[in-house]
Amino acid sequence: GAERVFVGPSIGLRGPREIVQALPFHDNHLHVRLPRAARGFRNDARGHGLRVPPGWFARVRGEDGATIATSFGSSTPVEAPFRGLPRGEVGIVLRNRSQPRRKSLAPALRGLSPQLEWTQGGHVFSAVVTLGPGASRRRRHQTLTLLRSIRPTQRAHQVLGRTSRGRPIRAWRLGNPRSPRKLLVVGCIHGDECAGTAVTARLLGPSLPLAADLWVIPNLNPDGRALGRRQNGRGVDLNRNFPSEWKPIGRRWSPQYSGPRPLSEPESRSVRTLILRIRPELTIWFHQPQGLVRAWGQSQPAARRYARLAGVPYRSLRWPNGTVPNWQNHRFPGTSSFVVELPAGPLAPADAERHRRAILRLAG
Question: What does pTM read for this prediction?
Answer without folding.
Answer: 0.66
